[in-house]
Amino acid sequence: METLAPGARIVARDAEWLVKSTSRTPNGSVVIEVVGVSDFIKGRTARFVKELEQDLEVLDPENTNLVPDNTSGYRNSLLFLEAHLRQTAPTDTNLYIGHEAAMDVLPYQLDPTLKALSMPRQRLLIADAVGLGKTLEAGILVAELMRRGRAKRILVVTTKSMLTQFQKEFWVRFTIPLVRLDSVGIQRIRSRIPTNHNPFHYYDKAIVSVDTLKQDREYRTYIEQAEWDVIVIDEAHNVARRGRGSSASLRSKLADRLASRSDSLIMLSATPHDGRAESFASLMNMLDPTAIANESNYTKEDIRDLYVRRFKKDVVGQLLKKFPERQVLALETNASVEEEEAFEILNNLKLAGIDAKASTGKLFKTTLLKAMLSSPMACLETVRNRIKRVKKTDDQHLNTDIAELRALESALETIDDRNFSKYQKLLQLISTTEAGGFAWKGTDPKDRIVIFTERLETMRFLRESLKRDLKLKEEAIATLDGGMPDVELMEIIEKFGNEKSPLRLVVATDVASEGINLHYFSHRLIHFDIPWSLMALQQRNGRVDRYGQEQQPQIRYLLTRSNNKKVDEAERIVSVLVRKDEQAIKNIGDPSVFMGVFDVDKEVEVTSAAIEAIEQGETAESFDARLQPDKKTEDDDNWFANVFGDEPEVSEEPQAQAAMQKMPSLFPDDYHYTLAALGAVDEENPLQLRSFEEELLIELTMPNELRSRFERLPREIQPASNQALRLSGDRNKVMRELEESRKSEERWPSIQYLWELHPIVDWLNDRGITLFGRHQAPVIVLPQLMTNEVVFVMLGIIPNRRGQPLVNKWVSVVFQNQKVKHIEDFEETLRRTEFDRESIPNQMLPVDEKLLNLRGLAVTEAEKKMLEELKKFEHEIDIQLQEQLNRLDKLKGQHYQQLKLRFADGTPLVEQKKSKEERRIEQIFNEYWHWVEDSMTTEPAPYIKIIAVLQGGTV
Fold first, then answer.
1. pTM of the predicted protein model
2. 3-state class of 233 per DSSP?
3. With 0-12 CB in 10 A as exposed, 13-18 as middle and 19+ as buried, what is 110?
């Protein structure tokens, strides 16, 4: 069979089809995605397995039928040409579409895409700091992959609190239609498809919560069996293997399996490691299983191509308008008499039985202090729960401990909202202007407050007390915690970001501190208690202090000072974390370097140990002195400082502009192309269509053919049956509409971004390439051409073994007096004729028979040109291919060297394990080797297609 590549026309099942893409199944079969060209299947999409289609034939370009175009101004010919241009994938490393998304792109946000496109495989960890826009950076990369025809099937895995936000960002800014498979979405699918069908085959683009997959074994199996072009794993630190020597969690195992099910893998995390080389290696191995031979000992050189990491300080010059510098105040209050009594009892606790076997940093007494520094209510709940647990053991040795806890319980019961000093300070902070207060009334929908606490009981107390004391209506205050169902969690987040919603104040536990946007109508954040972890502190602040915040973030910390010296020293130690976080933001970037343990729970242990050491003389000053970023720890010897210590990859405006390119087009923009293409549809089947030139706006009632395409797209993007689809090619208007949607009852903008990736443009492209019949190309008579001049416009494709184009080239074979004059790039033809800028008079002339004799010559010349291109390309690609193969050989040797060291003991059991590991290494390298060869090795002959013929007068 001749070369099969995107753009090829084939005959299968007695009909003509155009190849859109090819891919391989796990067993090596070639799957061909096509769109119908013949009249009875025109515009229909289908998939064929090449090996099962006995009569499949690639059409010979020399036999292309040249036909006239009887539409005014050669409209159909121009649409036919444009559709082919738009389905021609870029094959270089420049940017063609991502930077045009509906967002104010900053140069640094293009760097992950530029890095990924320069790699053989787009597999990358985007590890930028909290709030720098990792979701948008992922969207830019996915958009570029879609434009290249390498992202038909996309899966996003995120946390349940991020589902709607991620889905909306990808749709509104990039028109990437992810179907949200939350708990409700999964139930809906179960009712729509047969029970034995895989739902992840039903939807090409989906977003799912990692928590849902953990809980639903059936769906976990389904997702592991599906193949994807691109997988995005958000908050990827959650799927890393944590701690040295630790076994993989269910999340980690799931991510490991998914990593092998896609060509491209994009991971996002602001906190990508726990300070252990093994943990970070688990993520790197998902991206490239060949890169690291020894997970405990590898270098920056082994992994430098697999990640991008920048901090706010690295890009501050670009962020001035989109990231105002925050204002931070720590507000202290003196403990009340009742609180002092509770502090005194707590400080004198012995808990000899309960804490007998507790390790440093994990004393129950410390847990009680931590709860008390949150609220007496949280401490009381903790005391009562422990008393219940201890009594169930019926251990007489713990009676003294119970008595101590009963005394503390009695003291805590005397504290209510009136003598809870920190709560009274909170009311003052919210309601007055004293000491950095907000003077907040709760009437302005654009001025909302986020309050964070670690404890559920504190959250519940704050909700009820603030509702009463601030005279808030039921719907004006809400809580967010990790135990909430995903749908309810997303509902509250959506309401908080909607101006019409009456919600004004959210009290959240740390479930809301990871990833979600709370900054649209809030710039005020209050830490009612301070987490004993710098990483947790950073995540909390990032909810309002992030890219896109238009007002100065107002961040407040509440601290309780006590007359009890040890309790007061504990709060002073906690306040050190506040200062360290600010120091990191301004000078260092990563606050986790201060403690050097790179894990929230371990940071809490470090702080707890310091507080427990107060008895031995630990102070806030000594704790502060120990938390220095240049201090080396015994375990990692400052390993991550070495890995991430280079100058960060940050593009400025000139570099970004140089990478931005445009594919050739016959239309000034997407709006005018869409309008012209809809005009052609309207002639065939009248449409309900309105257009507004000044706004680049189109309103269209979807015809059935288009509506059927939308059936498998998210319900949220589909207009109601009686409403029009509203599209705008003005990205600023789309961004304004997004802002407006937050001010109205509409949760999703009513105007969709009209650009190359919108599903309607994809539909019109498919229609455009079928405007002429089976194996036909139109002839256009151009007054701009000389008499007896003929130009054959040809598309040449050099695909790899997987059918993906490595070189796409549009060439024009120019004839004069029926002899080949020269070959030029199609862009040059456009430049000298300008037929894309002026209307072309159509005299409805018949096709000159002499043109048929030129087809073979044109194809031969185009083949010569493409073979020259092939030779140049192979010279470049052979060097890259050899580099890749040499790299794999070297890495494989390192893996076997490490294997030899690990299994030096030659006992039968060890030999058995060694043999198993050898098989795993062989499989990893064989799979990667085959992928490299299939992806970087060209097919021997280029594919040539005649797209159109331009004729100047008589031949």
1. 0.84
2. strand
3. buried
Residue 955 near residue 847, CB atoms below 8 Å: no
Q: Residue holding tokens 């179907």? A: 179
Beta strands in 201-359 (DSSP E): 205-209, 228-233, 262-268, 307-308, 327-334
On whether the CB atoms of residues 708 and 161 are closer than 8 A, the answer is: no
Does pLDDT of 646 surpass 90? no
Distance from the first to the final alpha carbon of the chain: 35
Measured CA to CA, the distance from residue 429 to residue 232 in angstroms comes to: 41
Residue 29 carries which DSSP code?
P
CA nearest to 453, candidates 479, 430, 472, 475 = 479
Single-letter residue type at 199: P
What number of other Cβ atoms are within 10 A of residue 739's Cβ? 11
Q: Which of 266-280, 585-599, 655-669 has the highest mean pLDDT?
A: 655-669
Type of residue found at 499: E
Which residue in the block uniquely carries the two structure tokens 């310091």? Answer: 610
Distance of CA 844 to the CA centre of its chain: 51
612, 361 in Cβ contact below 8 A?
yes
Cα–Cα distance, 260 to 275 (Å, whole number) = 26
Place of tokens 């790299």: 887
Burial of 893 (0-12, 13-18, 19+ CB in 10 A): exposed
Rounded Cα distance, 225 and 248, in Å? 20
- Please compute Rg for the chain using Cα positions: 32
At 102, give phi and psi (nearest 5°). Answer: -80, 70
Q: Cα 140–146–148 angle (5° rounding)? A: 110
Residue 861 phi, psi dihedral angles, 5° rounding: -65, -40
Cα-to-chain-centroid distance, residue 832: 42
Q: What is the mean pLDDT of residues 388-413?
A: 91
Per residue, the 3-state secondary structure of 173-195, as one string, reads HHCCCCEEECHHHHHHHHHHCCC
pLDDT of 15: 81
Contact indicator for 934, 928 with CB cutoff of 8 Å: no
Rounded CA separation 647/656 (Å): 18
Tell me the torsion sign for CA atoms 387, 390, 396, 400: negative
Is residue 131 exposed (0-12), middle (13-18) or buried (19+ Cβ within 10 Å)? buried
Pairing mode, if any, of strands 751-753 and 819-825?
A: unpaired
3-state secondary structure of 781: strand
Q: How far is CA 537 from the centre of its chain?
A: 23
Residues in CB range of 114: below 8 A, 6 or more apart:
93, 95, 651, 659
User: Are the C-beta atoms of residues 530 and 330 closer than 8 Å to each other?
Assistant: no
The CA-atom distances, in angstroms, between 212 and each of 198, 233, 254, 388 are 16, 14, 12, 33
Measured between alpha carbons, how far is 649 from 634 in angstroms, rounded to an integer? 29
Instruction: Write the pLDDT tens digit of every residue in 790-837.
Output: 999 999 988 887 778 899 999 999 999 999 999 999 999 999 999 988
- Under 8 Å between Cβ of 863 and 813: no
Helical H segments across 53-158, by residue range: 75-86, 111-117, 134-147
Contacts of 495 (CB under 8 A, 6+ apart): 478, 501, 503
Average pLDDT value for the chain? 88
C-beta atoms surrounding 397 within 10 Å = 10
